[in-house]
Design a protein that fits this description.
Elements (H helix, E strand, L loop, with lengths): L9 E2 L2 H14 L5 E9 L2 E8 L5 H15 L2 H11 L3 E7 L4 E6 L2 E2 L7 E2 L4 E6 L4 E6 L2
Helix pairs in contact: 1-2
């Protein structure tokens, strides 16, 4: 008997992915969106977003803000919570010549309460150049 691998990526409903693509295109119409991959794996929602052109750091923050707004929509948030529980977000923005790696924990540890909901406000960013920006606030 073989073993079952629970660590494999799990597809997110195609209607959700289509809605994400539409939202990203509508909110960032100066960028040429090539593809979006959304999947769940090991407690994380992974969003791989591909652009044909280059994006600046500020542009990438704008894309992440759009992704965050999408994830916090009532129907999307409800679907993700029912399907996967409270999850972390990993977003990778692939551009023509560079990439931006964003990570966001759902729960943000604090000194007075270790389980304060973050609502995806604090993101940790690493650029493809290797430069790490510890935390940025995306509102």
């Amino acid at each position: 008997m073989g073993m079952i691998n629970n660590n494999c990526p799990k597809a997110i409903d195609s209607d959700i992915v289509s809605e994400c693509v539409t939202d990203l295109k509508n909110s960032n119409n100066n960028f040429i969106l090539k593809d979006v991959e959304l999947y769940y794996q090991q407690g994380k929602i992974h969003a791989n977003i591909y652009f044909e052109n280059n994006l600046s750091l500020e542009d990438s923050k704008s894309v992440v803000k759009s992704l965050k707004e999408f994830l916090l929509k009532d129907n999307i948030n409800e679907y993700l919570t029912e399907s996967h529980g409270s999850v972390n977000i990993h977003a990778v923005i692939y551009c023509k010549d560079n990439s931006y790696y964003y990570k966001c924990p759902y729960y943000l540890p604090t000194t007075d309460n270790s389980d304060v909901k973050n609502n995806y406000k604090m993101w940790y960013l690493t650029k493809s150049s290797g430069e790490t920006i510890k935390a940025i606030n995306i509102d």
